[in-house]
């Protein structure tokens, strides 16, 4: 694995260039502000009715309509939601400068051919491995967030240099840039979202909470045990790794983990994980995402409503009130 840091990267490929950030959500806001603070000429492209325009302007950023922003820039970074990017690209494709560069922070639309870029464009990926809020706060602390980079199309012979300079400008090279591909980044990210951190972990937390409550444990104690300690284990793993985490906890906790963990995450669970990965690689998940968006997100809206009404959410809110926050 090659890890490139600030000292390894030449910032010149972005010098004197204008970067358009299309979208002002979690990543768009953070990357636009980091670019601005790194001395890059940046413009945020938004829809005419976007409520984000005022927020961006108050942050000191230049704002323009999406097609105007794209036509004025040398580099166009697509940071709107995945399901919207193909439509945005179709809208601005003719406005992007010949021989320009387009960038992404997620490989989905390129890997699954939802966007087929013009042949004269450089196409690159810089994918910070964390949320935009953390990317911004780390930058302000003069730290960085590790990121993956890749090139899907090198029309000018300079796509790699632009990608690396971009990663440096948003602060990621302070922590390190790792070479990857659009396919690898996309498949690993979608798999993690469905089968590990964002999918399986909340389900395990909820199942553990419900198991204890069904057995007569008070909801508050069940929540503190099954959910409250999650931050502690995450911090230990970040600082020490999984093996180091095991060594840092008590013998009682470690023995419980050794005896209980493999029974919960068994071959059946691993097979389900393989099925999730197969759904990602086959394109079935992307098709489901497009259908969900086309229908107005009924599945997501229902899931959000159910989550807000759940017992575990009620206990969370009650404990927050008791804690004065």
Automatic annotation (TrEMBL):
Q: EC number(s) in its UniProt entry?
A: 1.1.1.86
Reaction catalysed by this chain? (2R)-2,3-dihydroxy-3-methylbutanoate + NADP(+) = (2S)-2-acetolactate + NADPH + H(+)
What Pfam families does its record include?
Answer: KARI_C, KARI_N
Keyword terms: Amino-acid biosynthesis, Branched-chain amino acid biosynthesis, Magnesium, Metal-binding, Oxidoreductase
Q: Which pathway, per its entry?
A: Amino-acid biosynthesis; L-valine biosynthesis; L-valine from pyruvate: step 2/4; Amino-acid biosynthesis; L-isoleucine biosynthesis; L-isoleucine from 2-oxobutanoate: step 2/4
Describe the location of the KARI C-terminal knotted domain by residue ranges. 181-325
Q: Could you tell me which InterPro entries the record lists for this protein?
A: 6-PGluconate_DH-like_C_sf, KARI, KARI_C, KARI_N, KARI_prok, NAD(P)-bd_dom_sf
**Binding residue positions for Mg(2+) 1:** 189, 193
Q: What's one GO MF term for it?
A: ketol-acid reductoisomerase activity
Q: What cofactor is needed? A: Mg(2+)
Positions that bind Mg(2+) 2: 189, 225, 229
* UniProt enzyme class: oxidoreductase
Q: Which domain of life is it from?
A: Bacteria
Positions of substrate binding: 250
Domain KARI N-terminal Rossmann residue range list: 1-180
What family, per the record?
A: Belongs to the ketol-acid reductoisomerase family.
Function, please?
Involved in the biosynthesis of branched-chain amino acids (BCAA). Catalyzes an alkyl-migration followed by a ketol-acid reduction of (S)-2-acetolactate (S2AL) to yield (R)-2,3-dihydroxy-isovalerate. In the isomerase reaction, S2AL is rearranged via a Mg-dependent methyl migration to produce 3-hydroxy-3-methyl-2-ketobutyrate (HMKB). In the reductase reaction, this 2-ketoacid undergoes a metal-dependent reduction by NADPH to yield (R)-2,3-dihydroxy-isovalerate.
What is the name listed in the Swiss-Prot or TrEMBL entry for this protein?
Ketol-acid reductoisomerase
Q: Which organism is it from?
A: Sphingomonas sediminicola
* Lineage of the organism: Bacteria, Pseudomonadati, Pseudomonadota, Alphaproteobacteria, Sphingomonadales
Recorded name of the encoding gene:
ilvC
